[in-house]
Automatic annotation (TrEMBL):
Keywords of this entry: Transcription, Transcription regulation
SUPFAM superfamilies in alphabetical order: Homeodomain-like
Record-linked PROSITE patterns: HTH_ARAC_FAMILY_2
UniProt source species: Roseateles agri
Identification of the protein by name: AraC family transcriptional regulator
One family name in Pfam for this protein: AraC_N
Amino acid sequence: MLTAFKRPEPGDRSAEQMQITVMRAELAAQIERHSGGVDGICGTAIPQFSLARLTQAPPMGHALHQPALCILAQGSKRLMLNDEVFIYDSGHYLVVSQNLPVAGHVISASQDVPYLGLKLEFDARDIASLVLELRGLDDTPAARRAQRGMFTGELSDTLLDAVLRLMKLLDTPEDIPTLAPLCKREILYRLLRAPQGWQLAQMAITDSHSQRISHVIGRLHQRFDQALVVEELAREAHMSVSSLHAHFKAVTAMSPLQFQKQLRLQEARRLMLAEHLDAGMAGHRVGYESQSQFNREYARFFGNPPARDIRRLRDEQLGLS
């Protein structure tokens, strides 16, 4: 049975906060139910929409984060983009607008109050048509300057309402093909209309600096195992080398070389863990010519040499540590 929410009067901040609290509790109940009360990350019948439930905070993890909206119904999380820290909780959402290598961990999770969250992935095509319709998002100097590809914002009742309606479609699977795209479009509309909306709009504004950097990020993902030629990337992005460095760092908080290094190390870790390659083979596969350099950079990035790190991860998977 769908719950009908009465919209607070404009300007009634206390009523809005009370309604957000009620809606957040319902969202938590929905995530708990649809996750089956089992820890982990699970996909849903709605494309690009997944749920997360945890009763204990795992160690720091590393991942390549795709463009997505992340919302927590319970708990909090800390993400790091290079050396920059982003913390969000049940009162704030996180938006990642580029494909970025991040590190992060859940701050609070317990048996009594599990960490409960959701993720809705999207891409530039999902944003582009809305940006064309919403006048003013693409005609300011700020909208064309490269900005961080990750940001947080305060969760509003209108955004939460749209997310809840998407969530409730899991109870009526026959409605998903028709109504889920409408809910997703409204969610993106609410994000674009938020105070930080222009930061999301950048990824879809033709020839903006962020869109050019997005192309460079895509190229780095495709050929991270090859030698980095910054001049070639700059030509492809129609930028000077100095401009590429400045705008790339504005979006990713790191240089192209640091970005490539993180891609390489994360992929090497995945190869050792999932495909049981040794450090020498994994380092060579991702583009390292020097085994000692690979071992040194791996230990600096992950905190342990390759063999010890992989052994620890496997022990954690088996529940032995």
